[in-house]
Design a protein that fits this description.
Radius of gyration: 21 Å
Helix content: 40-55%
Strand content: 15-25%
Distance between the termini: 18 Å
Mean pLDDT: 95
Largest sheet: 8 strands, parallel
Shape: globular
Low-confidence stretches: none
Number of helices: 17
């Protein structure tokens, strides 16, 4: 029996992290069958609904600060917990593991953080960023960075961070795009340590438990793209115009799908969906917001799978759509969207946040709608290829003979 410990995801209030967790479980079962024990460590609370559809244990680790981490790491001090298990108890779980996997989906990206720390303290910041990977290396446990997007970043700090992590925190790093792989190589990461693979979330199963009364177009809205948006016409107006167009021209209903909806966020995907709906007041159109706060991740993916087509600006809504065989039109802000589409031979269905307006969006959607059945066939044909690529890379990452 092999024990694998994963960490760095938050199972609640989003689709992305649970998608990766479902995917890693599928990957490990394909590789090890019943001879694997998967333990997921999550810092902070773990609501029952968030993990209700997962067939493995997620353990809540009491949040800890830098001082407690360094006391535990350098001096072996026992840290006490107020709820969940303590940092010290988590370290003991890691000590008994065969593999520790960091699962976070995007790292060293200047667009998301836009801040740097003192270069002289970079090793300490790296350990704080990947604390359980640091413990794994301390205990001589195999430490891996599962499929992630890396970069983009022009600031040399992020490249130095990537190089340091590759040398001292991770035995292997998996890049889910060619451009992410190139970012690591340009940062000085050894080619022997880098593997290329599609996102593990492509392996998340689809449970067909939803059926709509009429053709429904899913639109996965994003607070992140609102922040990245640089086109003259704002994102909310573009989405509202698309909703009107879909309902009036094609007689379809629209389901606005928030992907990330943490109550601690000042502006999340639910807020974006509500802003879109506000612009449609008085139009009497069949447009509604999916009540994602009451759904498990499997139920959310079932709703995406039931859509006729998807229009998405959230990465893991895109993964969920394509891996469920649903035609996808992307409004994206990062090269991860471009390369995900390329895996499924859907390169043409991408609009950028830099030059998108409602006129261009509607014209593109019309072409997309007309060709949706052709797209569906290509996506379904490519799905086994993508899954095999994930499996092959997973075996390489874990050091398992094919």
């Amino acid at each position: 029996m092999i024990r694998i410990v994963t960490y760095d995801l938050i199972a609640q209030y989003n689709l992305g992290c649970p998608s990766i967790l479902h995917g890693i479980r599928e990957l490990l079962q394909k590789i090890y069958g019943d001879q694997v024990e998967l333990i997921n460590l999550q810092i902070g609370e773990v609501p029952d609904l968030a993990v209700s559809d997962m067939g493995f244990q997620t353990i809540s680790v009491d949040p800890f600060g830098a001082k407690d981490f360094f006391k535990a790491y350098f001096f072996g001090k026992k840290i006490q917990a107020k709820r969940g298990i303590s940092l010290s108890e988590a370290a003991e779980i890691i000590k008994s593991a065969d593999v520790v996997l960091n699962l976070y989906g995007i790292c060293f990206c200047e667009k998301l953080t836009r801040k740097t720390q003192r270069s002289s303290l970079l090793p300490l910041y790296a350990m704080l960023r990947f604390p359980f990977s640091a413990f794994a290396k301390r205990y001589h446990v195999k430490s891996l960075k599962a499929a992630s997007s890396f970069g983009p970043a022009k600031n040399p700090y992020y490249k130095r961070m990537a190089k340091y992590c590759s040398r001292f925190l991770f035995d292997k790093m998996v890049a889910r795009e060619e451009k992410s792989l190139q970012f690591l190589l340009d940062s000085g990461v050894s080619p022997k340590k880098v593997i290329h693979s599609p996102d593990i979330a492509n392996l998340m199963p689809v449970i067909s438990s939803v059926a709509f009364a009429q053709k429904t177009v899913g639109i996965s809205v994003s607070h992140q793209i609102v922040r990245q948006w640089s086109s003259p016409e704002d994102y909310i107006s573009c989405v509202a115009a698309l909703c009107r167009h879909i309902c009036k021209e094609y007689g379809a209903s629209v389901l606005l799908i928030p992907n990330e909806f943490s109550p601690d966020s000042s502006y999340n995907d639910v807020d974006v969906a509500e802003d879109c709906l506000e612009q449609l007041q008085g139009d009497d159109l069949p447009v509604e917001i999916l009540d994602v706060e009451k759904l498990s991740s499997s139920q959310l993916k079932s709703h995406i799978a039931a859509c006729e087509v998807m229009v998405a600006s959230r990465y893991h809504s895109c993964v969920a759509s394509l891996s469920a065989g649903v035609p996808l039109l992307v409004i994206g802000w990062h090269y991860k969207y471009e390369e995900l589409l390329h895996w499924y031979e859907q390169d043409q269905w991408l609009l950028s946040e830099n030059d998108c307006d409602s006129r261009k969006l509607l014209q593109t959607f019309d072409r997309f709608w007309e060709q949706r059945e052709e797209s569906r066939k290509k996506i379904q044909a490519r799905k086994p290829v993508v899954e095999e690529a994930v499996l092959t890379a997973g075996k390489q990452m874990l050091g398992v003979d094919s």
